[in-house]
């Protein structure tokens, strides 16, 4: 297997080795297979969530094309652009070993763009996260964003579900709790349905009130005309 860098992508080609060509057995089956993935570039986004997301995207790309550990740092640094790349080069030069292992690269990257202090702050914000004036869909997006980077607080499906449910508005939460749901997707779906139902009920109340107000206003106008 050979791994190549193309413009903006990592390419892996599975090519038969000598043994397969000689019929000594291989699962590659005269394969000349090319897979291309295009990880995002990182240009120094100050948002720590974006930095963490970029690192995860790189790791996903490595898994797809099966990049070996000793090549990961070189390929990841290829996607560091602009000022980030200029900062990385002297940092790499300061490392004692000529090659920077992937674990060390990850450590240095997180120290710079997603330090422990920021992760701790996100943990606090995650624990305090509530739906508040957001709709359920917006709350779920925010919850998922935080949960990706504070896994210690959602280490199981049940714990993740409980935390999401706890942050819902009281009028939605009370109805979700009554359903005794256990999984995160089912609780999210129930909250979405309940929210829609509440909006429809509120709209019906407003329409009914408007009709009553119109009838009273009309009656008042007719009474005034009769008196005059």
Low-confidence stretches: 12-34
Give the mean pLDDT: 80
Strand segment tally: 3
**What best-fitting shape do the alpha-carbon axes yield?**
elongated
Order of helices and strands: EEHEHHHHHHHHH
How many domain units?
2
Category from helices, strands and their pairing:
mainly alpha
The order of strands across the largest sheet is: 1-2-3
The percent range for strand residues is 5-15%
Radius of gyration: 28 Å
The major beta sheet can be summarized as: 3 strands, antiparallel
Assembly state: single chain
Number of helices: 10
Distance between the termini: 98 Å
Helical residue percent band: 55-70%
How would you characterize this protein structure?
With 228 residues, the protein is mostly helical. It has 2 domains: 2-114, no CATH class; 130-217, no CATH class. 64% of the residues lie in helices and 8% in strands. It has helices at residues 18-21, 48-65, 69-78, 83-94, 102-113, 116-128, 136-147, 157-166, 170-179, 184-227; strands at 2-6, 9-15, 32-37. The chain has a 3-stranded antiparallel β-sheet, with helices on one face. A hairpin with a 2-residue loop joins strand 1 and strand 2. Helix 8 (157-166) runs parallel beside helix 10 (184-227). The longest helix is centred in the C-terminal third of the chain and has 44 residues, at 184-227.
């Amino acid at each position: 297997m050979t791994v190549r860098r193309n413009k903006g992508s990592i390419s892996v080609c599975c090519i038969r080795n000598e043994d397969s060509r000689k019929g000594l057995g291989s699962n590659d089956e005269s394969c000349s297979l090319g897979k291309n993935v295009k990880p995002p570039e990182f240009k120094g986004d100050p948002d720590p969530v974006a930095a963490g997301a970029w690192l995860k995207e790189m790791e996903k790309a490595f898994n797809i094309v099966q990049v070996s550990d000793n090549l990961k740092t070189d390929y990841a640094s290829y996607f560091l652009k602009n000022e980030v790349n200029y900062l990385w080069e002297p940092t790499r030069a300061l490392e004692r070993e000529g090659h920077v292992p992937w674990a060390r690269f990850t450590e240095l990257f997180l120290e710079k763009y997603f330090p422990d202090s920021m992760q701790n702050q996100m943990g606090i914000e995650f624990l305090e996260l509530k739906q508040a004036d957001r709709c359920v869909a917006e709350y779920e997006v925010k919850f998922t964003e935080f949960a990706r980077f504070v896994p210690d607080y959602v280490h199981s499906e049940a714990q993740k579900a409980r935390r999401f449910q706890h942050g819902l508005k009281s009028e939605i939460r009370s109805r979700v709790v009554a359903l005794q749901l256990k999984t995160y997707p089912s609780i999210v779906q129930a909250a979405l349905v309940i929210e829609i139902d509440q909006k429809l009920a509120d709209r019906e109340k407003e329409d009914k009130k408007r009709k009553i107000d119109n009838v009273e206003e009309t009656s008042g106008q007719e009474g005034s005309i009769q008196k005059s």
